[in-house]
């Protein structure tokens, strides 16, 4: 009697799973595979916050966790700027305009934060930014458009952003899984940022994100 292929496939899946409960036939390679980590020092961490507020009133760094928060009526980071309020980590000294670069960090967004950019690639040939990852009601969106992920409130997540400048492509991973890919916006003076940066509209009064294990990689 001929055994249907679907039965053979099911048997194989069960056999592999029973042999190794941690196995996942459909898992992808780690996003950092093939990359080299670029060492970060304190000199690479520039902190931007409302210009009239002491840093310790918008930022803390305790037990390896960077906590960044801002209010909707805060001033911008520079008295000559007309941008929205922010408290952000700007990766300094590792600006790039070619090659393949990657940001990695473990992020946390508390319930209630909404309309806040939590990670971005600043710089582009056209416009101010190449990538904006923004939280609205616990969901992550590309700017205020494409839905990338849901249910991110009150839990740590691993975020990896790969920018292939020569290939003109940006890829986003959450917890090791690819969740979004988009064409970039051309070459420019490019660098990574994370923290909280208020959107132009539809924002909560209080915005916060936390980050740990921030790393930069390149090929």
From TrEMBL:
Keyword Signal: yes
Domain Alginate lyase: 46-217
Cross-referenced InterPro entries: Alginate_lyase_2, ConA-like_dom_sf
Signal peptide positions (record): 1-18
Keywords: Signal
Domain of life according to the entry: Eukaryota
Protein name: Citrate-binding protein-like
Gene name as annotated: LOC115750691
């Amino acid at each position: 009697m001929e055994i249907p292929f679907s039965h053979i496939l099911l048997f194989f899946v069960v056999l592999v799973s029973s042999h190794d409960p941690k196995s996942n036939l459909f898992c992808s390679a780690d996003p950092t595979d093939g990359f080299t980590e670029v060492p970060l020092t304190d000199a690479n961490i520039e902190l931007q916050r409302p210009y009239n507020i002491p840093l310790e009133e918008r930022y803390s760094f305790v037990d390896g966790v960077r906590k960044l928060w801002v209010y909707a009526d805060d001033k911008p980071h520079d008295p000559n700027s007309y941008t929205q309020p922010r408290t952000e980590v700007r990766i300094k000294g590792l600006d790039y305009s070619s090659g393949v670069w990657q940001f990695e960090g473990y992020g946390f967004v508390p319930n209630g934060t909404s309309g806040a950019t939590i990670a971005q690639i600043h710089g582009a040939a056209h416009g101010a930014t190449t990538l904006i990852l923004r939280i609205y009601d616990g969901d992550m969106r590309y700017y205020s458009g494409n839905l990338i992920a849901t249910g991110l409130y009150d839990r740590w997540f691993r975020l990896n952003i790969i920018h292939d400048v020569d290939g003109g492509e940006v890829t986003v991973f959450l917890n090791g899984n690819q969740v979004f890919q988009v064409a970039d916006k051309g070459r420019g003076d490019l660098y990574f940022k994370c923290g909280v940066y208020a959107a132009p509209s539809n924002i909560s009064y209080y915005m916060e994100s936390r980050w740990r294990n921030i790393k930069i990689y390149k090929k």
